[in-house]
Amino acid sequence: MKWVLSWLLVFAVIHAAMFGVALGEGYLVHWLVPGLDFSTAVLMGLLLNLAMVFLVLAFFRVVALLPNSALATRSSQDEDEQHEED
To answer: What's the structural domain count of the chain?
Structure first.
């Protein structure tokens, strides 16, 4: 039960932080474009934050799918160069 409450606390803190950033972005957009309603600007900020979260998750998922062969090739080439120098 304790882990459920801690998970909910983390979830609430993350959402509160995202909403705070969205409020700031909404205020900035409303300040730059006064004809835009503040609630619409906050909604745009929330959608932008949501899109950024999905973009970051997609980026890390793609990076996780990349093979590590590029790093292995680079390290094996370095080892070959060291053996040639000896």
So the answer is: 1
Task: Supply 26's token pair.
Answer: 């909404």
Flag whether the pTM goes above 0.70.
Answer: no
**Residue 34 parent element (H or E):** none
Nearest C-alpha neighbor of 53 from the set 11, 24, 3 = 11
Structure tokens at 53: 């979260």
Find the radius of gyration of the CA atoms of the chain: 23
pLDDT tens for each residue of 47-79? 988 888 899 888 888 888 877 755 555 555 656
Percentage of the chain with pLDDT > 90? 15
8 Å CB contact between 46 and 18:
yes
Residue 31: which domain range?
Answer: 2-85
Nearest-angstrom CA–CA distance, 12 and 20? 12
| Sequence-separated (6 or more) residues with CB below 8 Å from residue 16 | none
